[in-house]
# Entry
Amino acid sequence: MARMVTVGAAQLGPVARSESRREVMSRLIRLMDVSARMGVDLIVYPEAALTAFFPHWWIEDESELDSYFEREMPSPATRPLFEAAARHRIGFHLGYCEIAQEAGRKRRFNTSVLVGKDGRIIGKYRKIHLPGHADHRPQHPYQNLEKRYFEVGNLGFPVWKAFGGKVGMMICNDRRWPESYRVMGLQGVELIVLGYNTPVHNPEMPEADDLGGFHNHLVMQSGAYQNSTWVVGVAKAGVEEAVDQIGQSCIIAPSGEIVAQCTTLGDEIAVARCDLDLCTAYKNSIFDFSLHRRPEHYKLILERTGVGEPLGGPG
# Structure
């Protein structure tokens, strides 16, 4: 019997800087209500879904910066979403910005949680591949200050047994790095969920602006195929506080094919029935790591070139 999970990619349009958590929460719950009528088991929201994407601005006031973060999850503002999930019996993935008290100090992370159909948190992930810069670059039309506002995630790339399979998370720029997928692929991941806020314009490499949409899908499709997993990538899209962000939220099969995609830059749901057993077909043939993958050969090559150590895993 096939292991089917119906997934909804819940794209968001722009969130205004003046928009309250309560207003954003009503949009998230509205998308969940629609998903419930469509029989969705798991709804996936974008990165930093609760506010406008503040790393695009230079912020010096500590209290203003803290206002974009959650100190607990569920927080008072997000509790209605957890309650709606339990009421509808729908799981969800939510990206948000987290303040944590760890090692005797305040730490800030770009974070996501995976929540079950009972409204309880299954797992948490903190973004590892932080893009951008930490210095002020007023010559640019917007900033990309994740290196200033966030610390590198310290939870690794775990995989959880959930929704009838093995589920992992990543966030935005993580999707561009093959190691993100491979670490989870070595754990047998069958469904990767992720959110992103990706501008159309790249001030550091404007000549590639026209390729942004292509590259967005390229990395997720290749990661899905090479690691025999479903990938669900969900955007916060449209022109948000003068920053034009790509959409293209999509659901990708282990074959690398896009099976569902949003067609607007606003609040929208794309839904697909995902057969997790399709992962097994690829894991047991083309991408049978134990049969075909040879880490000891990578190690020999790297030793000869002086590059460093390869990823470990079965071999």
